[in-house]
């Protein structure tokens, strides 16, 4: 082979080697960026609404992910925050931003009802432009999106306002020019360098699809069932129960045939249903689905309904009667005397008015509860309640012989009413607790709430056993078997509540009291929970404190690293968030395992870094990345650390490192939301590789 051939061969190999290196680098870049998740894609537009402008934001959310609403209450996951950057002197907000369909569900980790979007999100904000020279409307969205992991993200919108956008012209529509999505505090410049990515400007596309309907807090079936049971309870009160034989006898005797009597009774029952459903429809129409949902986290809403429910409870207990004006009942009776279909309809209305002293508090409570669900929940609730109320009138008209089996009216009817009064009183404190949580006043902490419930249900127990009598009770020389059993049930429930004062989780009522963290002492009245004493936190190294299950934890990387070097143990980094649901689930369900907890306590130095920590860093520690992202808070700092070092923006994220910050797990350098078995295997591998 001559020199030229050798040269060609060498040159050819060099070219292929360069291509191979380039391809390897390219795939490495793709892989290094593969974990930077963006499950929410945003678009926006501006259009005219009368003399104002309407900003419209639409998002497509990847399957199985959900993004939290701005109406998710404090104490839960991070709610959506909307900031209008250039509002001053340019435009005014008209009301609060309105949201499309959301879903609300109880989160047993945080003990709150969380509201979130699934599939798609739709948000509208009306503004009044006061600066005719306004060029853009700059809006920042900060939000949290979760699946098995959570991501704290933000989106910057710069929406162009054309010069032709005047009050007296035809509606204008422009597409928004969006800045690229950024994750709060992330070192995107580092990611771009390592991934060889180029900055891109996203062009908005108008979202054309309708926002899909979502299920409310509880399913509509469960709301219907609870309301149906409440209607049955109302049926057993002194205001309604005696009306059953009287009304059925009227229809059967006044009708010319049994068939006509049955038809009239059925129409009577349907009229009762219609009256209450219309009431639910009116409530929904007046407030609107979004407003009802928003009210559930409003301080004044909760305080007002606390007072209302206390008044209802006091009425049920016998202090006074809540009655509608007698003139209403008289007018309804006069119309009922006319007979026919109209007369039957007014008979149903008369029943609703006359029985209001018993049914009103129950109806009010149901509507209050439905208000926190939004949507058509008030209508469904009234349908369930009225169905239970109307059903006996229809059934006994069809089978009048059943009337003989009805128990006689008596003192037991007032007992039902009093029991409902105690339940109303207990339920009222949930609303007071909501207001206290939102304001973070710590007046009604977990121990106080549980103590109040112990007092209420303890008093109910004494009442059922005949040790307490109330104004409208009939004198009795003995209690019935049914009342005895109910008394025993409330006694057991009262005893079940007592350990809650010492930190017991009380899972049966987890939806009602404040979460364990909202407490006078996280370690309970006795100073110890699950074998961990409050004394265990004393004498720990600087920067450390007791974390979940009594594990010593650092919240600053440098403090934890210094301690790990001092005792020569590997580090477990825990990138977490205060509002991260799955982080709490891992801590509660995986870290607590008997095979895992000793390892976390004894074999590693745990450093938990909260990416949603809103505390500002000292001015000298704040900085701006090359990409222009400002690192202002501690959460920004730890998110920047996580994404620049480990190429991901999800929580929970766990990493085991040596004292030089090198990963100790070869197969899986990082791990997230996994089973206890997988987590244990990963822990053991990392610790065994520590040198």
TrEMBL record:
It is found in: Membrane. The keyword RNA-binding does not apply. Residues 44-158 form the Thiol:disulfide interchange protein DsbD N-terminal domain. The keyword Zinc does not apply. It holds the Pfam family DsbD_N. The chain crosses the membrane at residues 220-244, 265-287, 299-320, 341-363, 375-399, 411-429, 449-470, 482-502. It comes from the Bacteria. Residues 221-433 form the Cytochrome C biogenesis protein transmembrane domain. Its main location: membrane. This is Thioredoxin family protein. InterPro entries: Cyt_c_assmbl_TM_dom (IPR003834), DsbDN (IPR028250), Thioredoxin-like_sf (IPR036249). Keywords: Cytochrome c-type biogenesis, Membrane, Transmembrane, Transmembrane helix. It is a multi-pass membrane protein.
